[in-house]
């Protein structure tokens, strides 16, 4: 398991995460809860893909988005995309940009 995934899981398990408005709307549209997303990230065995953010609103010059696919405890495959956020040089939480059922 990658160091990045371990850091993401620790942030999630510590309750240090937040959802964007888009991610919250996707959760609602798919009938998922925040707990479903937490379970899917904790159950993931690898980061599916890491991409460089192209958002004009990014906080740093280089910002990476991690795509994670995992199942909740009911076996539903869930896709999430997020980033580790740092404040004053310290990782504080995992910010979820997208979260929905995998097609």
Explain this structure to me?
The protein has 103 residues and is α+β, with helices and mostly antiparallel strands. It has a single domain, classed as YaeB-like fold (2-Layer Sandwich). Helix content is 30%, strand content 37%. It has a 5-stranded mixed β-sheet. A hairpin with a 5-residue loop joins strand 3 and strand 4. The longest helix has 11 residues. The chain is globular and about 35 Å long. The model has no long low-confidence stretch (mean pLDDT 86).
Q: What attributes does this structure have?
A:
alpha+beta; 3 helices; 30% helix; globular; YaeB-like fold; 103 residues; 5-stranded mixed beta sheet
Quick structural summary:
This protein is an alpha+beta fold and 103 residues long. The protein has helices at 3-13, 21-30, 34-43, and strands at residues 17-19, 49-52, 64-71, 77-87, 90-101.
Mean pLDDT: 86
Counting DSSP E segments of at least 2 residues, the number of strands comes to 5
Structural domain count: 1
Q: If classified by CATH, what would the architecture be?
A: 2-Layer Sandwich
Order of strands in the sheet with most strands: 1-5-4-3-2
Question: The CATH topology is what?
Answer: YaeB-like fold
The largest sheet, given as strand count, sense and whether it forms a barrel, is:
5 strands, mixed
Q: Work out the helicity level.
A: 25-40%
Q: What is the first-to-last residue Cα distance?
A: 25 Å
Stretches with pLDDT under 50, minimum 5 residues: none
Q: Compute the CA-based radius of gyration.
A: 13 Å
Q: Count of DSSP helices? A: 3
């Amino acid at each position: 398991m990658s160091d990045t995934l371990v850091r993401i899981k620790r942030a999630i398990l510590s309750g240090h995460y937040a959802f964007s408005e888009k991610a919250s709307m996707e959760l609602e549209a798919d009938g998922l809860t925040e707990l479903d997303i937490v379970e899917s990230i904790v159950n993931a065995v690898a980061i599916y893909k890491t991409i460089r953010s192209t958002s004009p609103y990014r906080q740093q010059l280089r910002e990476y988005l991690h795509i994670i696919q995992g199942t909740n405890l009911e076996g539903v495959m869930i896709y999430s995309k997020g980033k580790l956020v740092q404040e004053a040089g310290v990782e504080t939480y995992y910010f979820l940009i997208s979260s929905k059922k995998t097609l």
